[in-house]
Structure formats: C-alpha cells, structure tokens
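Anyone opening a protein record will find just a pair of labelled lines. A complete record is shown below as an example.
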Amino acid sequence: MDLENVPSGISDLQMTRRLVGAARVTYIDVPWGLLSPGTGGVQLGVQEFRGIPVSPGVAIGRVVVVNDDRHVVSKRPIAKAMVQAECDRLDAALAASLDELAELRTLAEEQLGKEAAAIFAFHQGMLCDPTLTGPIRTRIEADHVNAEYAVQEQFRTLARRFAGMGDTAFSTKVDDVWDLDDRVLRHLTGSAPHVGATIGEGSIVVATDLTPSQTAAFPRGKVLGFVTDRGGSTSHTAIFARALGIPAAVGAGTLTAVARDDEEIIVDGDLGVIVLRPDDATKAKYGRIIERATAFKETLAKSRELPAQTTDGECVSLLGNIEFGEEAATVLEQGGTGVGLFRTEFLWLTSDHDPTEEEQFEEYRAAAIASKGSPITIRTFDLGADKLTQAQAAAPERNPFLGCRSIRYCLQNIPMFRCQLRAIMRASAFGTVRIMFPLVTNVSELRQARMILSDVIEELDDEGVKIDRAVEVGMMIEAPSAAVMAASFAREVDFFSIGTNDLIQYTLAVDRTNERVANLYSGAHPAVIKLIKEIARAARRRGVETSICGELAGDPNYTMLLLGLGLRTLSVTANRIPHLKAVVRSVDIGQCESLARRVGSLDSERQVSAYLRAEARKRFPELVDGRTGDEEPG
C-alpha cells in the first residue's frame, strides 16, 4: 500500500485496520510517522489475534517465521530410451523416502509418543500404496515426462481429492500429501532438507501452516510455542505441540502477514489468544498467569494420592482415556482409579498394516498389567468417519460421519472384529478388562455384536485359552437415538459410557471439525444436558453404571453439573484427573444438585455456559484456564 497517497478522509484507525487485515487491534497508538514505507516496514503497536486453542499453557518469546518453501518443478520431456532410467530414479527416491520416514517414526515415538509417530506411519502407508505410486510411474511411461513433474502432478491430484471431500477433518491429510511431495522431490532433486537453523532459545514458531516433518525437526527445548494461520483442533501442529507439552494455537488468520522475526509474542494455548508486540502491562499480566499456573500445578501434584471424595463423603471415580497400553500406568500416576476408555483404533492409525491378533493382544495385555487390577474398558475399533477408512476408500463416502463407522464398520468387517475380540478376551486373563461397543444406535446392533463376542468366547474355551468368561460388556451412548432408548439398552448391558463429543455433534447437527460452525458446537446446549440427565436417570433405575467421557467430562466448568445430574464416574485425559479431583474435593452433592436444577431452568447455551463459568470462577477460580477472573485477557 502506498502510504504517501492515502485517500483523504480516512482515519488512522481505518488505515491500521486495512494494514492488519483480520487481526483484532487491542492497543494501538500509531502516529503517521511510524507508518513508514521505508525498509523497516510498517511499525505497529500491540495486536491481538484469536485462534483455536490446541495445546494448553502460556508462552512469551520471540517470533520465528517459517515460510512455505514448497518445491516447484517444470515439465521436461524425456526420450523413450530414458523412461526406464527415470522410473529407476523414482524408485530410488521412494525407497530413500521410506527409509527416512522409518527413522523419523522411531525418533518421534521415542521423543514424542505414539500419537505423533502415527503421522509418519500414515506417510509410510501412503508411499507403499500402489494406488498412489502406480499413476506416477504410468505418467512417466505414457507421457515421457521427468519423474519430478510426474510426482508433483500426482500429489497435486491427491491433495485436491482430499480438499474436495467436503469435510474439514481431511484438511490435515492435505498437509500430509504436500509433506510427502516435498520429501520425494528432495530425493529426486538432491536438495537439502528443511532445517531449523534459525530457531534460537525462546522461539515461538509462526507459520501459515506446518508439515509434520517441519514440526518434528524443530530443536527440542528451543521452541516455546507454535502459532499457525490455518489448521484445526485435529491438525498435526496440535498433535506435536501437545506431545512436546508446549502452548499452541491454530487458525489465527493473518498473523504471518504482519509478524516479523524477533518480534516479541505471547501465545495463550488455553484461550487461543495471540498477542504480537505486547506492551509491558500485557507482559506483566501474562507473567502472573504463568507464575500462578506453575504454582497451581505443584499444588495439584501433592493431591494425587488423595481420594476423589466430595465434602459430604460421596465417592467419585476418576478414570483415564488412553490410546496405547503403556499409558495405563500414567493414569494411575495422575491419581486415576482405572481406564475408562481405551481408544484401540490408534493401533490401526499407527501401523502400516492391519494389526494382527498377537499385536493387539500384547497391547491390551500391557494395559491390563499396567492397570494393576484397576478396571480397564477397551472400546472396540471406532474406525470410519475421519479415521483411516475414508483415506483408503476408492470411493469415499459423501458424509462419512453419518456413514459406515464404529460398530457399523465392525459388523461389516466381521473377520477383523472377531480378531480384535479374541485379542481382548485373551488379555482379560491378565486384569479387570471390560469391553465396550462404540456408536450403537439400535438394539439389533448391540445384540449382533454380543452374539459375535459369545462365539469368540466359546471358540477360545474350546481351544483351552484362559479367559475371563464374566467380562463385563457395555456400550457408548453417542447418538440421540441411543440416549432416548437408554432404558431399553440398560436391560442389555452392564454399563454405559456417554461419549459427549459425538453426542453433541449429532444432537446439534454440527460438524465438530468444521471451523465455520464451531461456534454452534456446545456442550452447554440445554438439549444436550437434558439427554445426559435422562441417560443417567434410566441407568440409575436399572442399576447400570454410567460414566461420561469426551472433552466435556474433562472441563472443570462442567464437573459440578455432571455430579448434580447423577453421574459419579468421569473418564478424561490423564493430565486432567488432578484438576477434576480438586473440584470434587471442594464441593458437596447438595450444591451440585442445586446448580443442576438452576441450569435446567435456563433455555440457551449462552446462559448455561455463562452461569457455569461464573460458578466455577467463584468456587475454584484457579482451575478455570489456570487464571483468576481479574487476569483473564480481554
């Protein structure tokens, strides 16, 4: 923009808004002398951006802008006699890429955990898939073009396919495609890999988006946080940030357009707030937040061994959600009393092949042993929707969240289902194992699943395999149909688990992965609360234990409400257990029931959310976003 030819009548603030685009300006006092078109660029005051919080905590550091240095290659015709040599170059590049990915996967698993390693396992699977690599070879042979061009065209086609699926959950797959494209092209061109050489101590990485390879390559201990313009809560940036235990926000809009290297920046991973060029007062405010959060963590650590019991003596079971067997030990370390949800589909997502019965058995047995006699609830594969099957399908479903997923997928793939049930039952001999079926929507699905389980039990008995024949069987209530029929289902199962993530999504008809309607996705909606209340009531009448899992269960703002609705078992991410225990130990059931009655009289999610937050701030302010009300950023 030419600042020397500003239209007459435009104000300083209007000009500033034009310069910063979608950014929210919270402090700005910019005389025209500072808005200079010289080499120093535009100089602005404090700017605040709103993104999506994906990894908790607050960090204050210096900006390091990471640019997208994607390869661009030209189409080059080759002679027919050179076709085989070009195909050989392609094979060598693919082989080198696979070797590199194997090393990255091992390193990621050692340093960041299995969830981060699963991303590179997915990359390996893609490069081994002939439906991806075959067309590249065909293009070289049929069109007589160079391998670089064939690779880029095929990956571009695949990226468009993922982007055009109409489901924002697949946007992360586009990142995977471009990451692989870059990796293969590097080996074809002989160029050096991206490195984080410019990243020094106290850096906060700012980028339009980050590929898994870029994120994994950042030097450990130097990066304090991540911020990206694009992305959602399931993005790879989020996964890596959580694995590293550093604050992160995504979907910040236009931050990279105005941020410059070495500028000071604050990332609030609890609220998704990013403050660029903070003033002294803002830095002091966030400094106090960091100090209080650190002190509070120390307080929580001391209470891990204390029982989760209300002030009037009511016991509450706090269980953990895990993805891998070894994490069961972490649940106990955090003060949990068992595993309420073992998400077994990660065994598929982290493998480049279908997990065998033996591989599954070893994982389930590890969890059973690590639980030391505490109950462990193993959910059967929750595949479909945004997990694995759509990426592999020749013709992806138009609306996979309403398609063949969870128990439906298992019942249409019975050999796979039986294999898993055999592995779970074999592991039942090593601990207190329970089996749970996901997304059951009608009684016939449940009965068919139980019939298959009965066949597996008889089969293992005939083989002389030691199992627990009395294993408890339950189901997740994640759809309104199951919630409405809870009384009928209660006659068929030993326990319920309310899956709030999907229950909210299906009740409100809101895709929880779609940023365009993210503001409509709320567990505070009265319809959701009424369904939870009815499920708990139906279960209580039949003596069926009911737990609740999902993000709602781990939010301290909702703990009193859930207890007031009659729930006594919460299953959450392990690191949330100490927070919930602090809430439980500071309230009595009478207070919780009173709060639930008040919530029941409200008719909008905004009223409910505001009321719950106000009550939480009044009773335990240190638990709400790790800060007190007077230090909440405006």
